[in-house]
Structures are given as C-alpha cells and as structure tokens.
Amino acid sequence: MSRAERDAVLDEIEAMYRERYAVFLRVATAVVGDADLARDAVHDAFVRAVRHRRQFRGGSLEGWLWRIVVNAARRRRADRFWRRHVPLVEGTAAASSPNGDLRALVAALPERQRLALFLRYYADLDYRSIAEALGVRPGTVAATLHQAHASLKRSLEAER
Amino acid sequence: MSVERLLDRLVPPGEERGDWERVLADAGRSPRRPRVRALAVPAAAAVTAIAVLAWPFGGETPTVLDRALAAMGEGPVIHVVTRGEWGGTQIDFGSGDLTPQYAETEVWYDPSRGLHYVGRLGDRVVTDHLQPAGPAADRSAEQYVALANRYRDALRAGRARVVAEGRVEGRAVLWIRIRSQWLPDSGDGKNHLFAEEVAVDRDTYEPVYTRSTRDGRAPPGGGSLLLELERLTAGEGDFSGDPRQDSSGVYSGSELSENLSPRRLAQVLGGRAVWLGESFAGLPLAETRRITFKQRRRPSDPWQTTNGVSLFYGSLHPRRGGIRLRDDSRPFVQLLQATEASARWPTWRGVSAAGIPEGSLLVDATGTGFLRHEGVYVSISSRSMRRVLDAAVALRTVGAPAPPRTSLDLDRIAKDLEARRPHVVRTEGGAPVAPRAIVKRGKRVLQRGGTRGVTIRIHVPGVAVVDTRRMEPSLKQRLPETLVWHCFRVLPDDVLQTGGIAPIPRSGVKTAVVLASPSFRNRQRRLQPLRPPYDGCELGTGYGRNWLPRFDWHGPLEITLTERGRRYFDERAAARELAHFVRNGARRQARIRMRAGAAAPPAAQLADPSRADIDVTSSGARFRASLTAPTGRRFYIEIVRGRIGQKNVGLPLAFVH
Fold this sequence. Notes:
The complex is a heterodimer of chains A (160) and B (657). By secondary structure, chain A is mostly helical. Chain A has helices at residues 3-32, 35-51, 61-78, 93-96, 100-107, 111-121, 127-134, 138-159.
C-alpha cells in the first residue's frame, strides 16, 4: 500500500470515527457491559486501526473497522473482572448499569448471536458488513439473527 | 416488549463524539499528551475538581486509567519513594515511649545524570549518595525503572484494569492490575493468576501502594507503600548526593574467628566491648568469638575489615567433627557488636541502623534489636521479644558493674510490641479470582502412556496429566516424598529437549504437570511450552552416585510414549551401567593406581565375571569397556591414565559413546 493510499485510508477511518463514534461506543458498551471499558475498547480499536491500516486489503472498510472494534471489546470483556469495575463518581454509571433482567436475557444468547444482534440493531449494518465483522459468511448472519430474534422473543414472552 | 425496545433499553443511544486527536496521538502520529501533574494541589477534592475541569482532551470524560497515567507524568526522570511494608518500633529507654519506625528509600534516576539514593530510617537520613550515570547506576535503578515503566506502559497500552476499590492505611484507593499471567501450580493442578497491582488514590489518582497477588489475594507483607512514583521532565529532580558515600555494588560478608576468653574480651574493641555477664537469664555465655565484617568493591580488591565480637548465650550442640554449633532451637540471646558500622551491618530493612540514637532500641517483628551503647553498635537477637528488651537494659561494658534495674515496665512494652506485630500496612479490597483447570474436561488425548500403576496423558501442548493414585506400593516406598516430573523429546546425538520440571507429592494424586521452560523476553519471565509429540516422560532421579542398579539401570519410573523414547531409555540404561562399571570394583582401584603412573592391569583383572556382557580390553596406559544395548547400539568408555578419555567427555549419555 502506497503512502497516498494509506493516507486515504486514514481519512476514511477518521471520517468513520467522527460520524459513527457514538454507534461504535454503543455496540462496545453492549459487548463489554461497561461504558468506561467500552470507551477504552473503542479507543484501542481505532489506535490499532490507524497503526495497522496498511493491513487493510480492500473491501468494506466499515466491516474491517467493526471487526477491530468488536475484537477489542471482546478482549476487554474477556477480563473476568469487568463486573467489578468501579465506575467513576462523576462518570457514566447509568450507562454501565442497565436493567439487570434485560442484560440477563441478552447474556443468555450464544456470543455470535449476541454480537450479530448488536451490530444489526445498534450499528444498522447490512449482513455483508456483519459477516465481515464477525468473520462468518453472510448466510450465517441471516440464520444467526433469526435464531437470536426467536430466542429473545421466547424469553420475553416467558417473562410476561 | 419487542426485541428493538429491549435493546434500546439495554444500551440507550448516546451522542458522545470521541477524541480523534487522542487516537492519533496514541497511534504515534502526533506529540504525546502534556503532563497535567502540575495541577495537583494538596487538597484532594480540589485536585479532583481541577483535574476534571482541566482535562486537556475535551469531549470525553477521562477514565480512571487516563487519570492514573496523567498523574504519573511522562518525563525521562524517575522519582520513587518507597516504604517497606514491614515496620518496627523504636523504644526510648528514658521515657518508655514507643515510636513506629519505617525504612524508606527515595530514588531519583536520570539515565544522563545517574542515580541519587537516599535511605531514611524514621526521620533520619542514614544513606545519601549519588551514583554517576553509567552501567552501575542503570543496574541499581533497574527495579525502580521496571516498576515505573510497567505501570506507565500498562496504563498507556490499555493492559491495566481497575479491578476493585479498597483502602490502604484508611485511604480510599482503586486497585489497578497492571500485569498478570496465569501460571500453573502442579501442587493442585490448576492455573493461578499471578498479578502485580498498584493502588491509586481515589481522589488524586496517584499511586500509593504496589503488591503482588496470587488469585487476586496478597499475603501480608507482600507489598510496598509508594510514597511517590512519578516521571519528571528532563532537568528536574534532585541529583545532589555525594558519590563517595555510594555503598552499592559492595561485596560484603562476615567471618567468625578465634574464641575469646572473658579477659581477652575486655581488651578488644578498645576496651569498649559489651556483654551480659557470664550468664544471662539462666543462659550461660556459651561462645565468645571475634567476628570480622568485610567489604570490598571488586573481587580483586583487598577486603576492608571491621572488627567485632559475637557472643552467644544459650546451648551448643554436642561436638561433631570438632565443631560445636549453636543450638537456636532452645532459648538464646546473641549479641553482635562493633565500634564501626560497615556497608552491611548494622542494617535494618535495607538501610543502615547506625544512626540509632544512644538510649534507644530499634526492634522489628523478627525479634532483632539494634542499639548504640557508648559508641558501640550492638544487635541483639532472640526468639523472645521480652528477652531482647531484658538484654538491652542489662548490657554493660565488660568489667563494668551491672546497670541498676530499669524503672520501665518491660512487661507492658513487650506486650505492646507483640500487639504491634506484624507492623503490616493495612490494606482492604481486591478482586479474588478462582483458579482455573489447566486441562478442560473432555479434552482430546494427544498422547498417553503408563507403567507401574502410573499413567500420563497429554491433552494440550505443554501439559501432562499425571495420575499416581494407583502407583505400585513397592515403587512408592522407594521414592522421595516429592516427585519431579519431566517429559522430553529426543534430538539427534542423544540430546534431550526437556519440558519443564514440576514437583508433585508422591502420595497418590492426579494433577497436571506443566512441560515448559521459562524464557525471558523484554526482561519478563514467560513460560514456553514444549511442543509435542513427546518421546517419553519420567521421574527425575539422582544422577551419578544415586543410579539405581535395582531398577536395572533404568530410572524408577520411565514412561515410553514413542519408539524413539523406548530406544532412548534402553540406551541410557546401558550407558549408565557401563559408566557405573568403570567407576567401581577392580576398575576403580586400577584407575587410582593409573593416575599415579601405573600401567593398566590386564583385561582379565578388570573384567567382572558376573557381568559377562561387558567386554574389557587393556593396553599400556589405557583400558576400554564396551557394552551392547538392547537396541543393538554398542557403547564404549575409554580410561586413559586413570581418567575418562577425551572421546567420552561432554557426551550426554553418561560420558558414553
């Protein structure tokens, strides 16, 4: 990748960041379960994307970025101690402590279903971009979303 | 509720805009962020408010980790003040007052200016020196640099995690885990989380304490108070120490020499030696010896010596081999004394105790006291705190009358001191974690083997599950309490690539043994698993004199996993047998005579009729023994002028080729 191409990619990454930061943060918060850690995850992801932009081999830049963000968020979540993360006094405790029942319903889904759901509903991604972000085939995304939807509906009805 | 509604409620939409400049900065595309340390003011609340308001990045609320990083600063100069966690007490014999004492070290390090080290005991500066810039200063600063860098790098790279809130000496803190690694413990066959944690002040985000944890828990005494940990900009810091006072890099030691009679004792140390009389508290003066404290900068330098005296009140073990050792399993009092302080004595918690004022006693939790008696430095050791106190008030110059009884209530002081033990920094909070299984249930077996009731299975690279629960009793009787296992791959020329050695108890366990060797990268220890397939596994056994003919020259427990492993075990047994053969019986006698210049005896004299499988030939100043292993490989050992021949030296299989 030439310097000009790298600069062009950097411009696109910046545009994506400026336009969709809130969406990236929303998905990351859903994945990590904590707003502060989610901010760190999005930040890490974009730092990584800038540093490694020459590894972008074409295709959907958005899908590539989402893959990095999702992986960064999963890494943050993999830390088993995130539930003990102490929110700042003046931080955003509300976002990091949503309704526990809803969280449990979503948490009961298999991880791929959960991620697909977040990317579909929070980021409004098409199946191709979700597939790229999750490293699966587009057909798998459709089936996964269908299963997630069905599971959640069943759980919600059982809650009533 | 619909799925969309559920997800909306789970994480409501936000409008944050992020901080692209910071992303670029952290990706290395613009200058690093400025320090905000200068904003710190003593009032904690004010600090918080100012730090929040003055946060330079705008748009986004900084996290705890951001603030911790900012509180540390970014410059090249490291400034660290640590206080050892374990403290002690100074007793003023005039007033009876007890004052807590801690040893503190303060370090400024700048690669271009060197290392300024200040040691304090309580309020007194006891060491203050400068090591000029250079490799020696760099080495001395290593631990401080490592701490400062690890902390900063972990914060910067996002590896640090806030794991809990808590308290350190009553101060509200957040515990930040800056480094962690799951490491196995074959004692219980589980992975444990070993981590390094830093507590930062909840208001100022400055680091106040560091500790090492296992599974999120820290043993008492396992940490250090960080009174300061910061990075200053170039040109800042105090580098005013005296280079001549530098005692780092000093080799030191002590040596007990001649016994001293009481009359002679009165003459040493310029007539100022102290003692407790011919006996003390029912303990006879069992040993009086001269002691020499030695120090030098380089091994080639002559020793600088300081003369002292060691007195031991108590019992000595019965004489064995001309030496009578002190029996410290019974009550005792030991006095060490000298008129000058040396680099390593008297020291207390890493700093010199020479600055202790006359009329005071400094004691620590281990039952050692330091004092100065008419210019003589004295350390008093005993298992009993009360006995240390009694000895301290009963000390007198040899020949002088016993001092009057003290009016101090030593019982009360001893109880107070006991109540203060251990003087550990009080910490609360942490994030305990449960150890994890090394091998998940149902994991596919890559390799398996067993013998004599012991089985071994390889599930994942670098981990063997050993089951000794059904070990043959006759074997168990012959084994030590702790078994050391390793597995290996046989490389060309009989070289073994051995994967890790892990001790496990002999008494029937099923546990995971890690087959890995430590490797060091970037000065960090990491375990590198040995790649399967393995050729065999075995119990580590003594080598050489402890070979076991009763196991037919094999190890007591060899588990073959491949044909190559079987060949290795058979050939090693043959090599061991041959090596043992030339070292014993007629061969041993012949070798002793040959070293004195005798010729090798005839082969018939060297051979052993009971071991007809070993051939012996002899000629001139050498003889040779040979044996064919069950694999068909023939081994030789040549003895030349009584010694193992050059051809055999350096070979892996018991010097045999």
